[in-house]
Amino acid sequence: MRLICTVPRGAASLRAGPGQAMVEFSFVLIMFLATMVLMFEGGRLVVTAVALSNAARDGARQGVYLPSSTAGSTSADYDTQIRTKIQNTVAPFLAIADDHIDICRHTTAPVNLDYSSCDTTTPPLTRGSVIDVRVRYDFNLASISFAGALMSTFTSKSLQGEYRARLE
After folding, report:
1. Is the distance from CB of 79 to CB of 118 less than 8 angstroms?
2. How far apart are CA 136 and CA 93, in angstroms?
3. Could you tell me the pTM of the whole model?
4. Rg of the chain's alpha carbons, rounded to an integer?
5. Mean pLDDT, residues 157-161 taken together
6. What's the CA gap between 80 and 159, in Å, rounded?
7. Does 139 have pLDDT greater than 90?
């Protein structure tokens, strides 16, 4: 018995051509690479945010634990020690410039803190004083060279970590 299969005239054009697999693969590859880049950049963003938060906390704790009555110590000496602690905390991940670290010492905790109005000559902390530390970092996408103009609007994002500590 012989089986004869006939294909209707319109159905012949629905069969896959030789380039269809290549076109489908290119669409899938683009989506896969875009997903991988987003996962990579998202991971970097989270690690950076956590590192900044930890650095601000370590800097504030360093400021609270520094001895407040060391002879010859000035506010600049304390700030230098705090900045060094912050930079050592983020050293494996980031490079933080000194001008991206803000340190404010107060006798009472302000409700709305404005780092631009901090008095850098405030003496080191005494019992009941508050120290606020902010660490800023400009996060740049590492994959910008791959994505080109598609991601040009997302080139830089300023991240920051803040922490407040009180000397009891």
Report:
1. no
2. 14
3. 0.73
4. 29
5. 83
6. 22
7. no
Torsion of CA 11, 12, 18, 22, to 10 degrees: -10
**pLDDT tens by residue, 14-58:** 566 678 888 999 999 999 998 998 898 889 889 989 999 999 999
Determine the length of the chain: 168
What tokens were used for 164? Answer: 């407040």
Residue 133 burial by CB count (10 A; 0-12/13-18/19+): exposed, middle or buried? buried
Buried b (16+ CB within 10 A) or exposed e, 45-80: eeebeebbbbbbbbbbbbbbebeeeeeeeeeeebbe
Q: How far apart are CA 53 and CA 59, in angstroms?
A: 10
More confident residue, 157 or 101: 101
